[in-house]
Amino acid sequence: MKTVPISDIIVRDDVCRDTNRNWDFVLEYARDIILWRHFGGSPPAVEINQRGELVRGWHQLMAYRMVHATEVPVMVVES
Predict the structure, then answer these.
(1) How far apart are CA 6 and CA 72, in angstroms?
(2) Cβ(42)–Cβ(75) below 8 Å
(3) Whole-angstrom Cα distance, residue 79 to residue 71?
(4) pTM for the structure as a whole
(5) What's 8's DSSP letter?
């Protein structure tokens, strides 16, 4: 899976499809990311377009920021 620096991902409300933002979900993802780092596994990828704009995965991206990740797994989609 491809990864990109977290600082390269652009969050724009007019592009991101995640409109129901919930910090409880962010905390759950952050806990899961810590567990994946420790025990292994596949962390959740966020979806970005060709311009590096977040399309889907706002909760995951905020969780990666919360655990001070420097890189994020991504899937590049056409939008």
Answers:
(1) 6
(2) no
(3) 22
(4) 0.91
(5) G
